[in-house]
Each structure stands twice: as C-alpha cells, then as structure tokens.
Amino acid sequence: MHFTRPRELLVAGVIGLGLVYFLFEAAYEAMPSLPTLAGATLLVLAVGELVLAFVVRNRIRSGRVVTGIGIARAVALAKASSLLGALMLGAWLAGVAYLAPRSDELTAASDDLPAAIVGAGCAAALIAAALWLEHCCRAPESRDHDRDRRVTG
Fold it and tell me: By the 8 A CB rule, do 147 and 134 touch?
C-alpha cells in the first residue's frame, strides 16, 4: 500500500463535484432542504483521526510498543477518510457552485447555502486530519541509517 497521492484526492473530488452538480441540476426542486449541520459528521471523524494521529505519533516518538497491524489499520483508515473527504468536498462544492448564483433569486437556495459551506469546511478538515494521521504513521528514519548515509554518501 502506498500513501495517498494528491491526484487520487483530486480525482475523487472531481467525481463528487460532477455527480452532485448533475443531481442538483436535475432534481433540486424536489429535494428537501439541507440541514445546516449536515456535514458535521465529517468534522467528528476529523477530530477522532486527529486524536489518533497524536497518540500514534507520541507512541512512535517515545518508542513505546506500536504493532505493525495497528499502524496498517491506522493508515488504511487515513487513506479511506482522505478519499471520503475529497469526494464529499467535491459534493459540497457542487452544492455551493449550484446554490450561490441562485441564492439571490431563490429563498430555498439562500437557506441551503450555509449547509453547503459548512459541509465543505468539514470535508476539508477531514482531509487534513486524515493526511496528518497518515503522516504520523510513517516510520521514522533511523539515526544510524542517516549517519551511514552521510559517511558513505
């Protein structure tokens, strides 16, 4: 497994943006209104992953026991969360792109716009927390390995 690449996040975001914008175009009139805190679930996930990232980082730095399977699970969680965050960021940005120009004309659009903005912010927070967790799971470079590289290189 490799660490998350920016292009993977970009592809997921574009897919979310395209699909949801099409849905807004096709069926916005039939949709119920968006709750303002609809995207807050993503923020809860982001906070959980941020806490996990600091726990993992502190355990690795202090040399306490960290199992390989535990780190692999944390990396898998981080990768899945960053992709989910990118997909949802694209989806919420599609909502912003659809609703913002119509918010002056439609009351429903002006009521739904704050939910789309909050959702986009929460999705961005999830991406950031997931990438931080992934970064914290990297194996630290050995000091002996660095010294050997400087002497021979």
Answer: no
Q: Which pTM was predicted?
A: 0.86
Mind giving me the DSSP string for 80-142? HHHHHHHHHHHHHHHHHHHHGGGTTT-HHHHHHHHHHHHHHHHHHHHHHHHHHHHHHTSPPPP
**Residue 110 CB neighbours (<10 A):** 14
What's at 66, amino acid-wise? V
Question: How far is the C-alpha of 25 from the C-alpha of 100, rounded, in Å?
Answer: 13
Task: Name the token pair of 46.
Answer: 């982001």
pLDDT less than 50: residues of the chain: 144-149, 151-153
How is residue 60 written in tokens? Answer: 């690795």
